[in-house]
Each structure stands twice: as C-alpha cells, then as structure tokens.
Write a structure and sequence with these properties.
It comes from Geotrypetes seraphini. The chain is of the alpha+beta class and 354 residues long. It is 33% helix and 32% strand. It is elongated, with a radius of gyration of 23 Å.
Length: 354
C-alpha cells in the first residue's frame, strides 16, 4: 500500500537505524465538489516530515515525484501501480464526498472532504492514524492506539457505529495503518542516507528593557534542521518549566528553521538565566548564558527574514501553487490548518510542526 512496494527493496539495502527524534510519513488527500470549471477536484500529496515526496491531481492524472531522488531510486513499476491506485481512488472520490454531504444535509455550494493518514515514529514507538474532515471540520478518525472509530461530530456517529460493528473492516484498517508504520520505519533508514543532513542551531540570548523596569529575555535559535527542537529556560543552572511553544518554530527560505522564546524578569534580578537547547544535530546540549546588556530589537524584528530566497520549503511550494491556481491554494491552506490542529490535539506539542 502506498510506499510499501518501493521500500521493501530499499529496506534490504540500508540497515535500520534507531529513531532518535520524531518523524512522520503522511499522505494527504483532498476531494472538492462545486469548484471552478476545469480545475482539479482530487489531490493526493505525500510527505516525509516536511519534505514533499509525490503529487497527483485529477487534471493531469499523473503521479509526479517531488523529491528528485525518488524517481531515480524507485522501481519504475511502482509509479505505474501507484498511479493506478490513485486513479481508482479518484473515480470513487466523488461518491464518497456526496455521501458525506448527504449526512451533513448539504447539497449545494463548494465542499471539501479531506483525508490525512500515515504514521508518526519516534524512539521505540509508532503511531498510525487515519482522519477525515468535511469542510475543514473533523469528521471521522481511527488510530492504532484507540483501535476503534471515533465520530468527531454528531453527523458522523452513524458511520462510526457501523464501522465499529464491522470488526473485520476495522481490523483491515488497523493492518493498513500498520503498513504505514512499517513504511515509515523502513523509509527512515533510506531517508537518513538520502535527505539533507542535520544543521546545528545558532543560539543567541539577548534582552529588551521595558519602561516598567522589567526585562524581556529572548532566546533565538536559527538555521537548524530538522524542525524538531527543544528549548528551555534555566535559572541558576536549573531547568525551569518555561519551554518553547512549537508554534514559534518557523521555516526559513533555505529549508532550515528558526525558533524563539521569551521570558520576563525584573531588572533588579541577580539570578543567572540561560537558554538550554536540544537538537538532533548537537552531540550535547547547548547552553547559552544571558550576557546582561546585550540588547535585542522588538519581537517583530527578531525573526530574520532576509535569508536566501532560493531555498525550497513547504511555504515556498504552496506559493507556487498560489501563483498557478488560486483555488488550489485555498484548499491547501484548509488542509494545512486542519492538519496542524489535529496534530496538536492528538500528539501534543511534540508533533505540531512535523
């Protein structure tokens, strides 16, 4: 299913490496009705973390590699088989959406049905998921830890009850998700040899003094890859409970990331404050001490947006889509927003930016 045919062979070529951080193999499918004439109504995109792997839409009916090495390293038969699978899903997609529209008592207008499926892997654990949404609102889901269907809204309750009553179908879906997790673990071995290596964060701690005699400290980590990073404030050498908000991890144009967190202290404090950073690129934790008097500009100026614009990121890819098809842009934004919200709720902060 999906990447399994291409990864079975690759799994024999690269020894499995232990997962030292969080990774995700994710497939996004979007179905649209009522859109502009001659615009695609079916999209399927796959990602390894933030790296795009494939793209398929109903207008071209072609599966295109988004990572150049995909085409070179994969058996040519995979592309034909996967294209046939997506072509079949495309043909039944309208009936799927029309069924959901009926359940939602919607018969006119523009509507979307979205599917997010795949597996998150971390050290010694894996988590398979299959989630759907109607017009950006959660509809139905199942995961390998719950092992039963969950109705995310009242209109989906009948569907969830019917599927839970069908034990055979439920077990088939769980096996399907197990395949995703197997693919993710095998792909990890392949990706470690193929994808860009990790980049260390450049960490600075500076201050901004305020009129009320308080001081805001900023810890800014920049230029790191992959995106997952842990940042914690320390007081007198001891870790505090003040940590990085994952929403403050932002992409740079050159595929790297940056993150910032702040802490308010009194100007009279004699405590020593430092920023603790943990990242997969670092052999040991990086600790940067607050050097009093190192001033920082206001928060809106902290983020460096003047880096090389030639790099590709997910934001850049979406930008290309905007330039080509505005309608596709709107659908994509809805999918990304739904994806991030679901990850935040289901996995906690650790998976928000994968």
């Amino acid at each position: 299913m999906h990447l399994l045919p291409l990864l079975l062979l690759l799994g024999c070529l690269w020894a499995h490496k232990a997962v030292s951080e969080n990774h995700s193999l994710t497939y996004f499918t979007t179905i649209v009705v009522g859109g502009p004439p001659n615009s695609p109504y079916f999209f399927d995109v796959s990602y390894w973390d933030d790296v795009p792997l494939e793209w398929y839409d109903s207008k071209t009916e072609l599966l295109e590699p988004r990572a150049p090495w995909m085409k070179d390293m994969v058996d040519p038969a995979y592309w034909w088989n996967r294209t046939q699978e997506l072509w079949y899903l495309q043909k039944i997609s309208r009936s799927t959406l029309l069924y959901v529209m009926k359940e939602m008592n919607q018969t006119k207008g523009v509507h979307t049905y979205q599917i997010m499926e795949g597996c998150d892997v971390s050290e010694n654990t894996s988590f398979g998921f299959f989630r759907t949404a109607f017009d950006g609102a959660d509809f139905l889901s199942i995961t390998t830890d719950t092992e039963f269907w969950v109705a995310e809204m009242p209109e989906a309750e009948a569907k969830a009850e019917a599927r839970n009553a069908n034990e055979t179908l439920t077990q088939q879906f769980l096996q399907y998700l197990d395949v995703h997790c197997y693919n993710a673990e095998v792909f990890l071995s392949f990706a470690n040899e193929t994808l860009p290596q990790s980049d260390e964060p450049n960490v600075r701690v500076k201050e901004r003094r305020l009129p009320n005699d308080s001081v805001t400290l900023y810890c800014h980590a920049n230029g790191f890859y992959p995106s997952y990073i842990e940042m914690t404030w320390m007081t007198n050498g001891a870790e505090t409970q003040v940590t990085l908000d994952p929403e403050n991890i932002l992409p740079n144009p050159d595929r790297t990331y940056q993150a910032i967190m702040s802490l308010s202290v009194t100007s009279e404090t004699r405590d020593d404050y430092s920023c603790l950073v943990r990242h997969s690129s670092l052999e040991e934790d990086k600790i940067v001490l607050w050097d009093r008097g190192q001033m920082e500009p206001p928060p809106e100026q902290v983020i460096d947006r003047d880096k090389d614009q030639e790099g590709l990121s997910i934001g850049g890819i979406i930008g290309v889509v905007v330039a080509l098809v505005a309608f596709v842009f709107a659908v994509t934004l809805g999918l990304v927003a739904w994806q991030k919200r679901r990850r935040a709720e289901a996995f906690g902060e650790r998976f928000l930016n994968t």
